[in-house]
Structure formats: structure tokens, C-alpha cells
């Protein structure tokens, strides 16, 4: 499976995922790694719930005054000797980045892990223009070799097992000794590290995303576990940061607060292994750093979410907790969504990015169980926003005809209690008769979606309201 | 003095009305035993959740008006379902935003609406009925009850008084069962994958009885267990608490 899947073929994608045992085995690991990791980290921090309130409040405040904080950020970047570019959409961001690369005569580009570059399709665009960027995060590197897109926002290769990675390395690494043992994750890591080290040293431009943009200092911040982000941004002559506008926070203190939530929610770590602040290019007395520092600020539909029912989504810090705890994601993995961002946060964001017409399945493919909201460090009401998309779908008459008709028929009956009473009494009686002594039905007309997988427990016979009336009760 | 009894309107729910009246009668028994005067307004149908979760706000609103008018006269409204209680308690007021008169009525109704076990424990502080069940049960926390209304300890507290009953928790009782209303037929393959995990967790406990407070979840899990040939009995928690367990369990045949 790869990035060729679309959201409009979601049911088909899901079927294929459910018939893919290695994929199901790979995503089953999320439970014992990310989910139990988060639980342990949260249980060990008594103030976690209070921190969630604080994090939510910081982001909500920032969004109310986002113009002010972005302008302050821009001023501070420029004061530090960097450049800020404003990109309204994906095409503009890609063009700006290509121009910077071309102006520096870049041939070799390295990249830190960044979902925002996935959102704008930067790799494909640069490749069309003669520059092939090398992903340096291990997971990203693996899926780049496989020609896939990330199936998870913080664990892009979570769908791949180690045998597949070994095979990919043997295929892609021309110098690899065929007798070399690649059975263990640590030997895979060593192999990737050897190859990537050379790429780091020869890169002309390094591109990263940002977890935070700090208004008071003009700093960009990334967190990684492999240190690849540091090598991507320190070694090349030019460092380009691509970040969406809602990444801005007012102060370093705010970063510190949200950082306490981020890694705990994502992987269960207290902090990621590396946290890197970049403030402008290398200064005269700095031991290292890039000669040029560019920040590309991307809107891509976000300012339209401000003041709408989707504004709360802009608080998202991309920890992936909602994804890890989602029963749907855990059943089918990320690629089936056919979108850049999978899981609950993806199902809320995607219709804004690619249009509701192409992605209406995503908001519907949820049980609305609410576990996403209960683990979200930013307390984003994800189920409420999924329901908003369903309302927009219904308003625009995008709901499939069959579902619309069924809903209308049910609504007609439910608003007419007498008729409803007669209809339900008849239906309950018929189903009970049909089941006979069995108590459950293996097949029921019009209920194929149910009985394909489970029996339908039969009604007891009479409806409650009839039985109640029979007893002379009110 | 009968007049000093709290007047409770029982919203039986469309699923209980259709599939399992025993749950309704169990709820009545529990409420009357706890000293309530129980009425069942005959014109009740559905809380409107199917429309609400399908994006049909106007349809949901129309049914919400019907429910508000039927139930606003009671001291309390009690529902043997976390899902339907959550609809009234959490979502009704949102349906009427921008309409102060209706919103006030929705908020008033919301404030006196309760899920059954939460009402018995948190509002009445009722002593459990003296009932017995010999065996081991495991309890599935339904999503809306748990996450919208905080129903978690209440049913377990009540079950702890059932003579002979032990409760053995499953691996992840708070995981969704995959029902999700229309979701279970619209995305039936995914729903199946989710309920399959739930059924596996239930069986792994070795319990002979699965309980929960929402009939939607129970029909789903019972249907899956039945299809797999499992002998685990499935019942609404109210049935066991009221001692109304002489009839067949959910999906079980008559002997």
C-alpha cells in the first residue's frame, strides 16, 4: 500500500488493509509501545490534567491573536539575520523552497521529518525540478525507499516490519555486503546511519519542519529522537524551515509547558531525545550552523479555519495520541485514509485541505467513541468536529441517497408515536417469529452489513410499550 | 406518603423498547425499589441520536422537542443507556443554540436527566437490591456513558452487592466495541475488526457473563460472541441488579 490511495475509495482501502496480515501485525504493536507508554507517563505525572488545561489555554490565546504573534515572530527572525516567506498555499510554498534551493545552486538536499512537507507534496515537486531530497529520519528514509507515504504522523513506517526493511536496504544500498546480518533493528539502524552520514556531510540545503515557532525570540523548535534533525539543519549552508502558521506560540515558557505534554502524549517519553532551537543563521562566534536561515510560513486553508467551528483543530501539536487510541486506525492503519494525516485529527483536517466531496467518508468512518478527545493533550473536541463535517455533508446533500432515504423514513416514523408503535410492534413480532427458538438470527433482510459478521439477537417479542400498557401501567 | 416520592420519567430507549423490554422492566423495578414513582410516557420514540450523528441537525432537533415536551414535567428523567442519556444531557442544549427559550428548556431537562446506574448511586444513594447471581462477570464500559457522563464506578459498585457474583475486568474495558450506530453497517468490516477484539478480550477473562449499560454495545458484542459459538451470557446490567434473569440472555434461544 502506498500514497496512491484516495479518501474517496476509503471502504475499499479498508477492506484491503483488513486482508493484509503483516500490516495488521505491525499496527498491533501500537498498543504495547505508544499506548502503554503514554499511560505510564501520564500516570507518573500528577499535574498532567492541569497541564492539558494550560496547553489548551496557551494555544487558544495565541489563535485569538495570531496576527500579532506571527508578525512578532517575523520581526525577530529578521533581527536574527534570517528570512521569512509567507506562502498562501502548497504551490507557493513549494515554489519558494525551490527558488531558495536554485539560488544557492543546491544539488543535494537533506530533510528532517516533517508532515507539513508531506502536506504540500514537497518531495515530488523538488524531484520534478531536478532535486531529489534525502529523508534522514529512519522511518521516513525507509518509506522513501519503498516509495510510500507516512502511515502515521510520528511513526511514518509503523506499518512496516523489520524483515521488509532489511529487504528494502538490500535492494537500495548498492554497496551492501550480501552476507551482512540485518536481522535485528540495531543492525538496520547501523546500516541506515552509515548511508545517511555521507548524505548529511555532502548536503547543500537542509529542510526541516517545526514543532514550535517562538514569537518572542524568532526561534524555530524541532523535537526528534534520532538527532537527524540537528545534522540536517546544522551541517548544510542553508537551512529552510517549513511550518504552518498555527505552530506559533508567544514565549519560550509556553514551549516549555507544551513540551511537557508533547512527548508524553506521543510516545510516553518525558521528553524527546533531542530538542533543537534555531535562531537565525550562524553568528560570528558560533562553532557551527547554516550561513542562511529561511522560514516559510504556510497558511494552506488554516486562516479560513480561524473563527469557524474548526478553529479548535488549530491547537493540534501533532502528537498522534488520537491516532494511537483510535479503534478505526488500529484496525486498518494510516494508508487506508488516503490522506496525508490519518486517524481522528486527519479526518477533521483533511476535508479542509482536499475538499469535503473527496473526503466525506473520513468523518463518517468513526464510532464517535470519544477516546481521541479524552487523550488529546490540547483537549480538542474531535468527535464534535467530525459531527460538524457530517452536518456539512448533509446540508450539501452529499450524503448517499440510500442513507438519506433511510434517515428520512425513520424520522417520519419517530415523529409519529402511534404509527411508530404499530410499525415497531409488527417488526419486533416478525423478527421474533423468524428467530423462533434460536434467539438470534444469522440472516436478516436489509441487515447484511450486520449479519455478514455477527448474529442479530432477536427481539423478545412484544415491545416494551405494549407490554407496559398490557399491565395497565402508565 | 406517596406524594413525597421522586417522580421519575423512564425514557426506555428505542432499542430497549424494540429488542429487550426486560431491561425496561428491570429499570422500573430498580427505581421503584429505590422509592421512586415511575411513569413511562407512551408517546416516546427515540432521542434523535441517529439523526444527530448523521449530520441531520434539523431532524435531531425535531425529535429533541418531542422528548423535551414529554419529559420536562418530571422530577428526574432516567434512561437505561449512557448513549441516549448523553444525547439529552450533553448534546440537546447545543441543538438549540441561538434559541434562548428552547435552549433553557433543553438545559433544564439536561440537568435532571440521568443514566440509570448513575441515578441510583449518585442521586439516590440507593441501597442495592438483595439479589444473587452465581458466577463471574466482566463489564464493558460503553463509550458515551464513560466519556460523556463519567459512568464507571457506579455499575461496579452496585454489582459488588450482588450475592455470589465476582467481577473480573477485561484487558481494556474502556475500548469501544465498534457499534457506533450506523457505523456498524456503513463500515461493517471495520466494525467487525473492532468487535472481534472486544469479543477476544471478553473470552480471555474466562467470565461466564458480559454486562454493560447500553443495549447497542450489548447487541453488537452478543451477536459476535454468538456467531463465534461462545457460551458467554450477555445481559444489560439492570437485569442482574433487578434479579430479572429468568428469561434467555441477549441472543440466547428459549429452552
Task: Indicate the topology.
The complex is a heterodimer of chains A (474) and B (255).
Chain A: H1 10-18, H2 21-43, H3 48-64, H4 66-79, E1 83-87, H5 90-103, E2 109-111, H6 115-120, H7 122-128, E3 133-135, H8 138-146, H9 162-172, H10 185-202, E4 205-208, E5 212-214, E6 219-224, H11 228-234, E7 238-244, E8 248-249, H12 252-266, E9 274-278, E10 292-298, H13 302-305, H14 321-324, H15 329-332, H16 343-354, H17 356-364, H18 371-375, H19 382-395, H20 401-414, H21 417-435, E11 440-441, H22 448-451, E12 456-457, H23 464-470
Parallel strand pairs in A: 1-10, 2-3, 2-4, 4-7, 5-8, 7-10
Antiparallel strand pairs in A: 5-6, 6-9, 11-12
Chain B: E1 7-10, H1 14-19, H2 21-33, E2 37-39, H3 49-53, H4 57-71, E3 76-79, H5 82-95, H6 100-111, E4 113-115, H7 116-123, E5 132-140, H8 143-149, H9 153-159, E6 163-167, H10 183-186, H11 188-205, E7 209-212, H12 215-227, E8 233-236, H13 237-241
Parallel strand pairs in B: 1-2, 1-3, 3-4, 5-6, 5-7, 7-8
Helix pairs in contact in B: 4-6, 5-6, 5-8, 7-9, 11-12
Quick recap:
The complex is a heterodimer of chains A (474) and B (255). Chain A has helices at residues 10-18, 21-43, 48-64, 66-79, 90-103, 115-120, 122-128, 138-146, 162-172, 185-202, 228-234, 252-266, 302-305, 321-324, 329-332, 343-354, 356-364, 371-375, 382-395, 401-414, 417-435, 448-451, 464-470; strands at 83-87, 109-111, 133-135, 205-208, 212-214, 219-224, 238-244, 248-249, 274-278, 292-298, 440-441, 456-457. Chain A is α/β, with parallel strands linked by helices.
Care to describe what's here?
The complex is a heterodimer of chains A (474) and B (255). With 474 residues, chain A is an alpha/beta fold. Chain A has two domains: 7-303, NagB/RpiA/CoA transferase-like (Rossmann fold), CATH 3.40.50; 406-470, no CATH class. In chain A, 52% of the residues lie in helices and 10% in strands. Chain A has helices at 10-18, 21-43, 48-64, 66-79, 90-103, 115-120, 122-128, 138-146, 162-172, 185-202, 228-234, 252-266, 302-305, 321-324, 329-332, 343-354, 356-364, 371-375, 382-395, 401-414, 417-435, 448-451, 464-470, and strands at residues 83-87, 109-111, 133-135, 205-208, 212-214, 219-224, 238-244, 248-249, 274-278, 292-298, 440-441, 456-457. In chain A, the strands form three sheets. A six-stranded parallel sheet of chain A has the order 1-10-7-4-2-3, with helices on both faces. In chain A, strands 8-5-6-9 form a four-stranded mixed sheet. In chain A, α3 packs across α12 (252-266), α9 (162-172) packs across α10 (185-202) and α16 runs parallel beside α19 (382-395). The longest helix of chain A has 23 residues, at 21-43. Chain A is globular and about 90 Å long. The longest helix of chain B has 18 residues, at 188-205. In chain B, α5 runs antiparallel to α6 (100-111) and α7 (116-123) crosses α9. In chain B, the strands form two sheets. Chain B has a four-stranded parallel sheet, with helices on both faces. A four-stranded parallel sheet of chain B has the order 6-5-7-8, sandwiched between helices. Chain B has helices spanning 14-19, 21-33, 49-53, 57-71, 82-95, 100-111, 116-123, 143-149, 153-159, 183-186, 188-205, 215-227, 237-241; strands at 7-10, 37-39, 76-79, 113-115, 132-140, 163-167, 209-212, 233-236. In chain B, β7, α12 and β8 (233-236) form a beta-alpha-beta unit. Chain B has two domains: 2-122, Glutathione S-transferase Yfyf (Class Pi), Chain A, domain 2 (Up-down Bundle), CATH 1.20.1050; 127-241, Rossmann fold (3-Layer(aba) Sandwich). Chain B has 255 residues and is an alpha/beta fold. Chain B contains 13 helices and eight strands. Classes of the chains: A alpha/beta (474), B alpha/beta (255). At the A-B interface, α1, α18, α19, α20 and α21 of A face α1, α2, α3, α4 and α8 of B.
Amino acid at each position: 500500500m502506498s500514497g496512491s490511495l484516495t479518501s474517496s475509495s476509503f471502504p475499499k482501502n479498508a477492506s484491503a488493509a483488513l486482508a493484509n496480515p503483516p500490516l495488521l501485525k505491525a499496527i498491533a504493536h501500537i498498543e504495547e509501545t505508544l499506548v502503554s507508554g503514554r499511560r505510564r507517563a501520564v500516570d507518573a505525572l500528577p499535574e498532567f490534567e492541569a497541564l492539558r488545561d494550560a496547553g489548551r489555554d496557551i494555544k487558544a490565546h495565541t489563535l485569538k491573536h495570531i496576527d500579532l504573534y506571527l508578525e512578532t515572530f517575523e520581526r525577530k527572525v529578521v533581527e536574527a539575520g534570517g528570512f521569512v516567506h509567507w506562502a498562501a498555499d502548497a504551490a507557493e510554498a513549494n515554489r519558494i523552497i525551490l527558488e531558495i534551493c536554485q539560488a544557492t545552486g543546491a544539488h543535494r538536499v537533506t530533510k528532517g521529518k516533517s508532515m507539513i512537507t508531506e502536506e504540500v507534496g514537497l518531495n515530488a515537486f523538488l524531484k520534478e525540478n531536478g532535486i531529489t531530497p534525502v529523508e534522514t529520519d529512519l522511518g521516513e528514509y525507509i518509506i522513501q525507499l519503498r516509495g510510500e507515504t507516512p502511515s502515521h504522523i510520528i511513526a511514518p513506517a509503523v506499518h512496516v516490519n523489520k524483515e521488509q526493511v532489511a529487504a528494502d536496504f538490500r535492494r537500495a544500498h548498492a554497496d551492501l555486503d550480501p552476507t551482512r546480518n540485518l536481522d535485528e533493528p540495531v543492525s538496520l539502524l547501523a546500516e541506515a546511519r552509515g548511508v545517511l552520514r555521507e548524505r548529511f556531510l555532502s548536503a547543500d540545503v537542509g529542510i526541516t519542519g517545526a514543532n514550535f515557532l517562538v514569537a518572542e525570540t524568532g526561534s524555530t523548535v524541532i523535537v526528534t529522537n534520532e538527532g537527524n534533525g540537528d545534522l540536517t539543519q546544522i551541517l548544510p549552508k542553508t537551512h529552510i524551515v517549513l511550518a504552518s502558521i498555527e505552530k506559533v506560540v508567544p514565549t519560550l515558557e509556553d514551549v516549555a509547558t507544551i513540551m511537557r505534554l508533547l512527548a508524553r502524549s506521543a510516545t510516553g517519553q518525558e521528553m524527546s531525545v533531542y530538542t533543537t532551537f534555531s535562531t537565525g543563521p550562524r553568528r560570528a562566534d558560533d562553532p557551527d550552523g547554516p550561513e542562511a536561515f529561511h522560514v516559510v510560513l504556510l497558511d494552506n486553508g488554516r486562516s479560513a479555519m480561524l473563527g469557524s467551528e474548526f478553529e479548535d483543530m488549530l491547537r493540534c501539536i501533532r502528537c498522534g495520541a488520537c491516532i494511537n487510541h483510535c479503534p478505526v486506525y488500529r484496525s486498518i492503519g494510516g494508508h487506508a485514509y488516503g490522506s496525508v494525516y490519518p486517524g481522528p485529527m486527519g479526518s477533521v483536517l483533511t476535508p479542509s485541505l482536499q475538499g469535503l466531496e473527496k473526503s466525506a467518508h473520513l468523518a463518517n468512518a468513526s464510532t464517535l467513541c470519544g477516546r481521541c478527545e479524552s487523550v488529546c493533550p490540547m483537549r480538542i473536541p474531535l468527535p464534535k468536529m467530525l459531527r460538524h463535517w457530517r452536518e456539512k455533508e448533509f446540508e450539501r446533500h452529499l450524503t448517499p441517497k440510500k442513507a438519506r432515504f433511510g434517515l428520512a423514513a425513520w424520522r417520519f416514523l419517530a415523529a409519529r408515536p402511534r404509527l411508530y408503535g404499530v410499525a415497531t410492534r409488527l417488526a419486533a413480532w416478525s423478527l421474533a417469529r423468524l428467530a423462533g427458538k434460536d434467539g438470534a438470527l444469522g440472516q436478516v433482510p436489509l441487515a447484511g452489513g450486520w449479519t455478514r459478521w455477527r448474529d442479530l439477537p432477536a427481539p423478545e417479542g412484544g415491545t416494551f410499550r405494549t407490554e407496559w400498557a398490557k399491565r395497565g401501567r402508565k | 406518603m406517596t406524594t413525597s416520592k421522586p417522580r421519575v420519567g423512564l425514557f426506555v430507549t428505542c432499542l430497549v423498547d424494540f429488542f429487550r423490554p426486560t431491561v425496561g422492566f428491570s429499570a422500573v423495578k430498580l427505581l421503584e425499589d429505590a422509592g421512586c414513582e415511575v411513569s413511562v410516557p407512551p408517546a416516546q420514540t427515540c432521542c434523535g441520536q441517529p439523526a444527530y450523528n448523521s449530520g441531520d441537525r434539523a431532524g435531531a432537533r425535531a425529535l429533541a422537542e418531542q422528548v423535551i415536551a414529554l419529559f420536562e414535567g418530571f422530577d428526574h428523567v432516567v434512561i437505561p443507556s449512557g448513549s441516549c442519556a448523553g444525547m439529552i444531557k450533553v448534546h440537546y442544549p447545543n441543538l438549540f443554540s441561538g434559541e434562548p427559550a428552547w435552549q433553557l428548556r433543553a438545559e433544564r431537562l439536561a440537568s435532571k436527566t440521568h443514566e440509570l446506574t448513575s441515578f441510583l448511586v449518585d442521586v439516590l444513594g440507593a441501597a442495592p437490591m438483595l439479589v444473587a447471581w452465581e458466577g463471574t462477570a466482566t463489564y464493558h464500559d460503553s463509550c458515551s456513558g464513560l466519556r460523556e457522563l463519567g459512568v464507571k464506578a457506579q455499575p461496579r459498585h452496585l454489582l459488588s452487592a450482588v450475592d455470589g457474583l465476582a467481577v473480573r475486568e477485561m484487558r481494556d474495558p474502556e475500548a469501544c466495541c465498534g457499534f457506533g450506530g450506523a457505523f456498524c453497517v456503513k463500515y461493517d468490516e471495520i466494525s467487525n475488526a473492532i468487535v472481534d477484539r472486544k469479543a477476544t478480550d471478553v473470552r480471555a477473562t474466562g467470565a461466564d457473563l458480559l454486562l454493560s449499560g447500553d443495549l447497542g454495545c450489548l447487541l453488537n458484542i452478543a451477536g459476535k460472541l454468538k456467531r463465534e459459538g461462545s457460551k458467554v451470557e450477555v445481559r444489560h446490567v439492570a437485569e442482574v441488579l433487578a434479579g430479572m434473569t429468568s428469561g434467555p440472555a441477549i441472543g440466547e434461544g428459549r429452552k
